[in-house]
Amino acid sequence: MKYIQKAGLGVFIAALFAFISVLFLGNYEVTDAGLAQLSPQIKESHREMFLEELAQLKGRKFDSKFSFLGAVSSVIQLTNERVKQQYGLSEETIEGFIAAAVKGDDRSQRVSQQSYDQAVALVGDNMRETVLAYTNWLVGQSAGSEAELRQKVSDALTGAINGYAGNFSVSEYDAQDYLFSMAKIMAGGIYWENQFLFFLLIIVAGTVGALVWIFPAFFDGLPGIKHNGIYHQSATSRGLVGILAGIFLVGFYILLYFKHAYIAEWISLADPVSGFLRNGAAADRWFMYGFLYTISILVMGIRMFAKYRHSNYHKIRTASVIFFQTAFAFLIPQVLHNLNLPEQDLKNMWPLDYSFFFDYRLNTFTSTQTGIWMMVWGIILLAIGVPVLTYFFGKRWYCSWVCGCGGLAETLGDPYRQLSSKKLVSWQIERYLIHGVLVFVVAMTGMVLYTYFTGQSTILGFNSYSVRGMYGFAIGSIFAGVIGTGFYPLMGNRVWCRFGCPLAAYLGIVQRFKSRFRITTNGGQCISCGNCSTYCEMGIDVRAYAQRGQNIVRSSCVGCGVCAAVCPRGVLALENGDNDNSSRMSEVLY
Amino acid sequence: MHIVIIGNGIAGISVARHVRKRCQHEITVISGETDFFWSRTALMYIYMGHMKFEHTQPYEPWFWKKNRIALVKKVVTAISPENKALTFSDGSTMHYDKLVLATGSASNRFGWPGQDLEGVTGMVSKQDLDAIEHYSQGLQHAVIVGGGLIGIELAEMFHSRHIPVTFLVREKSFWNMVMPPEESEMINQEIYAQDGIDLRLGTGLKEILPDANGRVRAVITDQGEEIACQFVGLTAGVSPNISLAESAGIETGRGFLVNEYLETNVKDIYAAGDCAELRQPLPGRRGIEAVWYTGKLMGPVLAQTLSGNPTPYKQAIWFNSAKFMDMEYQVYGDVGNTVRQGEKHLFWKHEKQRKSIRLVYSAEDGRILGFNLMGIRYRQNVCQKWIESGTHIETVLQNLGAANFDPEFFAQYESQVVELYNRQNPGRNLQLKRKRGWKNMLAIINA
């Protein structure tokens, strides 16, 4: 058994090694055939210019992805400079504009309506609208000296020129997509010539290896808590292996969110599955992410069945997160995609799904009957589902039974649950952070909806598009992904859920003030051993309550049930009792 | 008023915390063992890698400063009641107004030849843990002497590191001086099921043999067998640490003798926890109950007395719990190791799994006396309420589900217990009326 187990681990590590290696095996060449294939993916507004610039690279061979993508990035820059020249204003017009604008009638350093109108008249028809939009605020502006006023006008005009060119230039977002396409189209080498073989070697063999590694745990001693050696192992006690795992995960998320061209091989590994599920379409990065996410939950979910084979609560709960991930988060959206319907994860909800109320989502929803139903369902879930279900069962009904983030935390993250900090100061930070994010998401969504209904993008001096962009970057990508999951091996498996998730904050407020859920403490049986606190993934100092004979009512508790399972004296149990808060929290007995 | 507490275990710390809750007296806690209070019940989990030492400390370091509980890491060597002063091993002294002895206990050593050799330890203190960790390096075979709760923990510790163990237990069946035969047999089976633990029932220690360097080389059992080993764990019970009694003139039995106010014969000196021996325990109870809960229960009571509200300590309805490998155990009330005169036992055992329920009740009037549970969790408040109020066994049975404290989705066996009773008592046809759940518990508690 031991040898089979080790062989499984060996296969898994080999697959992981291959997974990382394939990123470095490609060579690249820009060919006519490649350009022809690329062409339809380039936006029309700059297609011609970009392809012309790209032609410089024709015939050059790159034996590393970095030099190739570096060269393409330079081409994109060149394209954008050309765009700016082509769609800018001549020096003459610029000078004329400034001179006209600052020449107010009364010679005071002020832009009058009249002088402004004269200046705008100098701009050609194609750009006038943009220039007006960017500079009309200049009317009535004054400055201490003429030079200052000229500078003001000049800056505004530069903004207009850049803004106009922006309609034609290659945005950062486009650039990443083009780089990704080229990293696939123009690539050659062992990986790209044997893609399906690598799918078998990495994805299939890696999964099988992991399962073989896990499987003997079903027969490991008698059923019961299996925590031997957790703090002796480097991987689970912030040792070198743990730190490397953290670096790997952080790197994965950074590349996934911001530089996905560099992981084109990884994304393409999901092609066979995507082809099967999405009528032959190649995998994009989100499909690949969803696919890896789902098999992680599946494989590590099977590990949970082995580890907790004595505990029905954990077996049923694990089956639930596997089901919701596989069906709701992964498969149903593919079916919806094939039916040309919005790819909605029907168990996800705002504010975790922070873009739910963004204009493009609302437009998609409202364009079909089914879409409207999906939107209404999302709102019902949020406005009725959360309070009602949380009242009866606590926030666990979502956080540790349904949610995808929770599903990953409870399966892939289970080996790291003990690494969450139980210090009082962590709890203080947690409350500020998580409720701060909740306020942020409410404000951001309010602004987005205001813009959606009124068309005004500026509210109290903030631009709703940049606020939502900021949220998406700082919270959606960095906090939820890079830190939230990347830091599993360093700060425990619920970093996002504990410190950042605004939905968890909302569920938590209901749980704390209006719910029947509590963790009951069984009289005076607590021996203060600390297993409950140590293995609380949310960093709740469970023992602090249990040793005083007090029930535990905490907004952050996700009801994973591990405190009750690891308690060696039968002191703790998750219960749905009455909602009277004084009885829920009970008095301090010891 | 300066209250000085010797010992930072559960008894000493409970006293300190509760005095602070009640009044502003100056409090000093002295320990020679560790800087901070830690839960020695978790000692095994540190060794097994479930936790690190700091996880076993229930309070963060700032807690003591915030609550103005001064911690002193020194060893007290003498008490001078006339001057109300302590002397430390470094020669320094400290004045006290009231002194609390909470010195705990140490492993029994029954004068076995070789009991002080290198490689022999007990398993009570942080120092013991460090020693066990130290001796575990390169350890080929360990011998454990004494089959109590600590012995089986030590066996589980070595088992977790795949170190083969011979486990010498004097009794014919594990812990049968406490457990009824059926439960005791369940523990035997639980131990037999572990590879690498060689349980030798009915076997005692005769002698520990040294090698040329004065380290353990082997033991000889009372059956005359020599077993090679490099470590011997002595876990044949514990005795109170009472070495300070002599200098202070404190009367002792096995522990510091105390009255119902936990006061010794010397004025202003009290004792609590493992080291305190009640002069007048309740009938059927012992003067020393060396379990965690004693310290935890005595602490708040003694704190009342120390803060000016003299309060007698009354032994509460007995409860205890433990875990034998993967099998949990809870007891409430009076459960002996045999069916004693005037009582009846209803014993249910799961056909396949390691679970059992035993109800002890009076043969005379049917009053419930105790609950003994293996692999099933029961609620303390419900069991206690039934025992206190002398509830009839049949009422208990019909409501038994309300006592169940197992996690959600765990099977409930109370109806089988009721059926068993009906089978054993022809003519009776009880039905289980209550299942597990908060509401059912409240109905019993508020009845």
What features would you describe in this structure?
The complex is a heterodimer of chains A (590) and B (447). The two termini of chain A are 48 Å apart. The longest helix of chain A has 31 residues, at 424-454. Chain A is globular and about 90 Å long. Chain A is 63% helix and 4% strand. In chain A, helix 12 runs antiparallel to helix 22. With 590 residues, chain A is mainly alpha-helical. In chain A, strand 4 (458-459) and strand 5 (462-463) form a beta hairpin. The model of chain A has no long low-confidence stretch (mean pLDDT 94). Chain B is of the alpha/beta class. Helix content of chain B is 25%, strand content 26%. At the A-B interface, helix 16, helix 26, helix 28 and strand 7 of A face helix 8, strand 21, helix 9 and helix 12 of B.
SSE diagram, text form:
The complex is a heterodimer of chains A (590) and B (447).
Chain A: H1 2-21, E1 27-29, H2 32-38, H3 44-54, E2 61-62, H4 65-86, H5 91-102, H6 113-121, H7 125-135, H8 146-166, H9 172-185, E3 187-188, H10 190-193, H11 195-214, H12 240-258, H13 264-269, H14 271-277, H15 285-307, H16 312-338, H17 359-367, H18 369-393, H19 396-399, H20 404-411, H21 424-454, E4 458-459, E5 462-463, H22 464-483, H23 488-491, H24 495-499, H25 502-513, E6 517-521, H26 531-534, H27 542-546, H28 562-566, E7 572-576, H29 581-585
Antiparallel strand pairs in A: 1-2, 1-3, 4-5, 6-7
Chain B: E1 2-6, H1 10-22, E2 26-30, H2 43-47, H3 62-66, E3 69-72, E4 76-80, E5 85-88, E6 93-95, E7 98-101, E8 105-107, E9 120-121, H4 126-136, E10 142-145, H5 149-160, E11 165-169, H6 181-192, E12 197-201, E13 205-210, E14 216-221, E15 226-228, E16 231-234, E17 238-240, H7 245-248, E18 256-258, E19 269-271, E20 276-278, H8 292-306, E21 319-324, E22 327-333, E23 343-349, E24 356-362, E25 368-374, H9 380-388, H10 393-398, H11 414-424, H12 438-445
Parallel strand pairs in B: 1-2, 1-7, 2-3, 7-19, 9-16, 10-11, 10-16, 11-12, 18-20
Antiparallel strand pairs in B: 4-5, 5-6, 8-17, 13-14, 14-15, 21-22, 22-25, 23-24, 24-25
Helix pairs in contact in B: 1-8
